[in-house]
Amino acid sequence: MTDAATIHAATLTLDTHIDIRWPEPPDATRETDRRVDFPKMLRGGLKAAVFIAYTPQGKRDAEGLAAAATRADAMLRHIRSRADGKARRFCATAAELEAAHAARALCVLSAVENGNALARDLSRLALWRDLGAIYLTLTHDGHNDLADAARPRPELGDGPSEHGGLSELGRAAIAEMNRVGLLVDVSHAAKSSMMQAAELSRVPVVATHSCCKALCDHPRNLDDEQLDMLRATAGLVQITALDSFLRAAPSGGKSPATVKDMADHVDYAVARIGIDHVGLSSDFDGGGGIPGWKDASETMNLTAELHRRGYGARELDLLWSGNFRRLMRLAQRAAA
């Protein structure tokens, strides 16, 4: 396999972070106004997608926490229902993902974004894993009871830091995630939270949708010290297609980022920490989408740009899913 189209057709292309509409998600089996639905995945050769049960950060009172927990549980059940067991298979392990790909079925995976939805109840982690979730993003925008976030929410009463990184509950949550087989996602976490999580977790952590701070100074991006920590702990950064993470916008304007800028971030991370610690994601329907990869139907364009820069079949397999499958296996092994 030498040309990009042939490599793309054979590769298990996995997007590790795609949001869904809630509470009324469209029928993903039909063409929709969303950036990701199954027809677009088929046209673009996107074989697998991690759909996200996202809960926004709100007040941490009993009512707010209960609502977040209820929403996350319902979203996970809905995501699982999108798979029909035939053309679309639900996958919760690397082996299931690879078997579905071999059978030429689309792969549906799920995860939870924002540990606030735990509602301070660590037993919910086992429930989420039983429902098929593969990771938990510790925070979203705004501190929660687990950890400090990269972007505090002053309107919710946040200061620059609340816990100095992870809270005691956050540390206990990571231990429980290791026990039940959930990966720890450090996207959205403050640097202090991310570094502590990477050091504490028995399974390498992943930033499922982040970019490189050296190329774009955004609070959600990872600096060189954070990237080096991922290499030192066998972790992973999934470079994402969110324009403001890729290239700074001119004053008062929109970021001019394109798929070439995304490939620049991939190049930088690979040069800094090695091909084994870098992957790809879109954050589609959560803000992601750039010229060249505006939706799932254009997934081939990213493969073509990376191939043009010298990434061959082996490297593209690692970037698209091989590295993430390694972490999935490590999480399953740690739980066993």
Any overview of this molecule?
The protein is of the alpha/beta class and 336 residues long. The protein has one domain (4-335): TIM Barrel, CATH 3.20.20. Helices cover 40% and strands 14% of the residues. The protein contains twelve helices and nine strands. It has helices at residues 4-10, 38-44, 62-81, 94-102, 123-130, 168-180, 191-200, 224-232, 243-246, 259-273, 299-308, 313-335, and strands at residues 14-19, 48-54, 88-90, 106-113, 133-137, 183-185, 206-210, 236-240, 278-281. Strands 1, 2, 3, 4, 5 and 6 form a six-stranded parallel beta sheet that branches. Strand 7 (206-210), helix 8 and strand 8 (236-240) form a beta-alpha-beta unit. Helix 1 crosses helix 11 and helix 10 (259-273) crosses helix 11. It is globular, with a radius of gyration of 18 Å. The mean pLDDT is 97.
What's the number of extended β-strand segments? 9
Query: Strand-residue fraction?
Result: 5-15%
Helix tally equals 12
Could you give the order of the helices and strands?
Answer: HEHEHEHEHEHEHEHEHHEHH
Q: Give the overall average pLDDT.
A: 97
Please give the CATH class.
Answer: Alpha Beta
Question: What proportion of the residues is helical, as a percent range?
Answer: 40-55%
